[in-house]
Amino acid sequence: MKVEIFGSTDVGQVRDHNEDNFVLCKDLSNQDWTYKRDEQFDLGALGAVLFVADGMGGTNAGEVASEIAQESVAEEFKKVTALPTDDQAILSFVKKVVVRAHQNIVQRTHEDPTTAGMGTTAVVCWVVNDKAYVAWSGDSRMYLYRDGSEFYPITDDHSIVWELVKNGQLTAEEARLHENSNIITQSLGDEARGPKPDAKMVPLQKGDRVLLCSDGLSGMVSDNMLGGILSGRLSTAETCKELIQAANAAGGTDNITVLLLDVIEGKEGAKVSNKPNVSIKTAVSKNGGNTPINTVASKEGPNKGLIIGVIVVLVIIAAVVFFVLKPGQGDVGQNSNDTLVNPIDTPALNNSVIETPASVIETTQVNVPAATTTNTQTNNTAPNAPTKPPVTGSNSNSVTNGGNEKPIDNTSPKTTAPKDTTKPSGINVNLPKDTTKNNTPGGLTPRKSGPNLPKGGLNQDGGK
User: Are residue 57 and residue 161 in the same domain, yes or no?
Assistant: First the structure.
């Protein structure tokens, strides 16, 4: 697989210093932790590594926490000399890398009490053998852009508002603009409430674009706009630049970090047909809620249900004609409520009603299986967005190999207003009762200050 990698970070328009950190390793086999603009290269046997950390704690050294996480991740991958045995083992490894970074941050706070309260989010992606293995804690994200597929985040934010999205109480765009979007439910560095990172595996193919970012990007720019920028197909470096410019143009209220991996050569993706025999199947779903994600189109042979349905209709029509049109009785009368169906000209009959005069029989309802009907929604992001790529996942401590879980609803609103400039009306967030300070078990970890937070002793850190 041939890829191109680039990364960039920006302080934004409001903050006076940058608490984000990132690291890229383009060739783990040769321990090459450098990258160049417009450089395309073959992925080595041990693949490539991308990592983003979004520090928090303000004066309590958020940038120190993200730097420790960055260094810790690099150290763990430098120990890798061979690939783990299977997908499950690789996912377990990337989760352990995140936990190890957390432990190193906690150790530093013990050694230097002035850094107490610092923390960071983390998202790490290991790309190897046409697959991307991602683990994360907090709300830094990984996205996958694929031509002809819906653009969406692979990762689920560990945040108050994203729980409401998964429960169907908010849309993704409402969550982005919500006044409590700054509150995350786990991070690295909180000794009393250690992280429980999630992990997923995503198959990659030629033309895919893998994006890792801090919420300085995803919180300022809607998914619709992000997908539109990625669909423009500028070079890897120029795309990173345009993404950062979009975040700054929207207000740039936070530090912005963007990493992008483009698959230049790789496996060819399955072609998607618009014919009726294309069905949409669920590959994997999130932890509950009604947010649809990860659907994949698969071509199948002629639909047997349709054929059987047409035959059933023909048999019923023949039976009606036999019993109604007896010799000397004349034509069958038609009333104004009749629905006429021609089974020959109609490729799919869904819940059609065939009626005869009330004097003979009242109404015969024929329910015919449809060609293949599923509930899908498009995110209205890039020019073509009917389907999604397959994903296997691990939530907390397990890996889910999709295909049998329920699809959930992922409606993306059309607004692209800057973060925190618009509040969705009528949304009330009921925080858990144990919203105590950071050093108390069960407490929530506030990311940055937000207006009108519920009472309960949340520890405002004054900035990310």
Answer: yes
Mean pLDDT, the chain, whole residue set? 72
Amino acid at 82: A
The token pair at 75 is 């150290």
The answer to whether residues 396 and 359 belong to one domain is: no
Residue with tokens 């969550």, as numbered in its chain: 175
Q: Are 361 and 412 found together in one domain?
A: no
Same domain, 113 and 242: yes
Query: How far is the C-alpha of 138 from the C-alpha of 158, rounded, in Å?
Result: 5
Measure the CA–CA gap between 192 and 436, rounded to whole angstroms: 11
Number of compact structural domains in the chain: 2
Question: CB of 298 within 8 A of CB of 278?
Answer: yes
Supply the range of the domain harboring residue 344.
Answer: 304-365
Res 403 pLDDT > 50: no
The answer to whether the beta carbons of residues 189 and 119 sit under 8 Å apart is yes
Query: How far apart are alpha carbons 350 and 440 in whole angstroms?
Result: 57
Q: Over the stretch 150-196, which tens digit does the pLDDT of each residue have?
A: 998 999 999 999 999 999 999 999 999 999 998 999 999 999 999 99
Query: Strands, DSSP E only, in 129-252?
Result: 131-137, 141-145, 152-153, 183-184, 198-203, 209-213
CATH code for the domain of 64: 3.60.40.10
Burial environment of residue 110 by CB neighbours within 10 A (0 to 12, 13 to 18, 19 or more): exposed
